[in-house]
Amino acid sequence: MTQATGNLVRQRTENGITTVTLSHPERRNSLSMAMLEALSDVFTAIEHDSETRVVVLAAEGHVFCAGHDLREMRSQVDSHEFQLALFQQCSKVMQQVVNLPQPVIARVAGVATAAGCQLVASCDLAVAEQGARFATPGVNIGLFCSTPMVALTRNVSRKHAMEMLLTGEMIDAPRAEAIGLVNRVVAADVLDETVYRMAATIASKSGHTLKIGKSAFYRQLEMPLSDAYEYTAEVMAANACTDDAREGISAFLEKRVPDWKHR
C-alpha cells in the first residue's frame, strides 16, 4: 500500500517493511518546514502501526537530502521566531526517528548534507551506494551545523566529527563507512537489494523484542557503566518473561522456526 503526504513524502508498506520516501527532488529533498511537518506526521502514524516491523528511509532523485531549504530560511532571515521553530521542528523529527519502536534504515543514494547528514546519522542503520557523499557544510555559509552536530557526534568519534564540522568538506561513502556514519557501502545496482535484505532479516524477528532492544540501546548509552548494567539487567529479566522470549527459546531448543506473537 502506498500513501502520499502532501506530495512531499510517500509511504509504502509491504511484508512488515514501511518505506518512507522524501519526494521533492526538484528542491533536493530539502527539509523545509512543510517537509519536516509531513515527516513528523508519517513517523507519528508509524509509531502506532503494529504492521510495521522495520522502516526504510529513502529519497527520490540524485540527492538524498540537501539539508534545510535555504531559500525558505532567507525569506525569514529576520524572524528569530521562524528560525527557532524550524530548528525545533527538525530536532523533533530527528528524535522521532530515534524514538520509533521500529528500527530505521537509511537508504542513501546521492548527497546528504547538513540536516540531511543529520537525518542519516539519526537512523539506526544506514546503507549507502558508492557514489554517495556526506558533509556538514554550514561553516561555509556562516551557519555552523550545530543541530546536525548532535546526531553526528553520537555516531562518529569527536575528532572525525570536528573535522567534518570545521572544514565543511565532503566525504565519500567509503570514508563515511570507515568513521561509522554508515554501516555498508555497495554498488548502486545492488543498493535496494542490500537494504531490503537487511530490512527483511530484521522484520523476521519479534517486533516486541526489537522495540525493547532499540529503546534499551539508546537509554543505556547515556548512562554510567554500572547504571547501564543495572538497567539492562532489569530489561533482560522483563524481556525473558515475555511470550516471544518463551517461544523463541523453545523454538531454538526444539530446532524449529519460532511463531512470533509480537508480545
Provide the descriptors you would attach to this structure in a database record.
263 residues; alpha/beta; 2-enoyl-CoA Hydratase, Chain A, domain 1; Lyase 2-enoyl-coa Hydratase, Chain  A, domain 2; 2 domains; seven-stranded mixed β-sheet; four-stranded mixed β-sheet; 11 helices; 11 strands
List strands and helices in order, with pairings.
Elements: E1 2-5, E2 9-14, E3 17-22, H1 33-47, E4 54-59, E5 63-65, H2 70-75, H3 80-99, E6 104-108, E7 111-113, H4 115-122, E8 125-129, E9 133-135, H5 146-152, H6 158-167, E10 171-172, H7 173-178, E11 184-186, H8 191-203, H9 207-221, H10 225-240, H11 243-253
Summary, kept brief:
The protein is of the alpha/beta class. It has helices at 33-47, 70-75, 80-99, 115-122, 146-152, 158-167, 173-178, 191-203, 207-221, 225-240, 243-253, and strands at 2-5, 9-14, 17-22, 54-59, 63-65, 104-108, 111-113, 125-129, 133-135, 171-172, 184-186.
**Average pLDDT taken over every residue:** 96
Radius of gyration: 19 Å
- CATH superfamily caption of the largest domain: 2-enoyl-CoA Hydratase, Chain A, domain 1
What's the arrangement of strands in the largest beta sheet? 1-2-3-4-6-8-11
Largest sheet: 7 strands, mixed
- Cα(first) to Cα(last) distance is 25 Å
CATH fold descriptor of the largest domain:
2-enoyl-CoA Hydratase, Chain A, domain 1
Structural class estimated from helices and strands: alpha/beta
